[in-house]
């Protein structure tokens, strides 16, 4: 019979993968919850290398989720002030507009602050577009990371 803790862990890992494309679902944290549910309550020990690797992957997913847009803004040449403000703008607009507010808040903040700081329209637009790509790319990275976590967990815990 399949152990209930294993089923819960795998379900959480699957929810993490699905959540990586759904707004407001902290996919990395949900995947980490799946791993650590089994580590703490499962009947079979999990190797240290596997636990550390999956934990680092989950932390990476969390970081991409929250900081990819602002980091892309910074990489495009936006100021550190703009990067920090875009993070705050995304969180505020999340509360106002829901999930789409994250993108609107981050991208809009970059665009408006770049204009306010004296950037030309084309430069402000370029930096806002880089930011948009960063935000959208973070979803792709989250899918890949959480899917890898699920695959590694199944491989090393269920198969081996």
UniProtKB/TrEMBL annotation:
InterPro entries: DUF456
Name of protein: DUF456 domain-containing protein
Lineage: Archaea, Methanobacteriati, Methanobacteriota, Stenosarchaea group, Halobacteria
Top-rank taxon: Archaea
Pfam families hit by this protein: DUF456
PANTHER family found in the cross-reference section: DUF456 DOMAIN-CONTAINING PROTEIN, IG HYPOTHETICAL 17883
Source organism (scientific name): Halohasta litchfieldiae
UniProtKB keywords: Membrane, Transmembrane, Transmembrane helix
Residues making up the signal peptide according to the UniProt record: none
Transmembrane helix keyword on record: yes
Segments crossing the lipid bilayer: 47-67, 88-113, 133-159
Entry keyword Transmembrane: yes
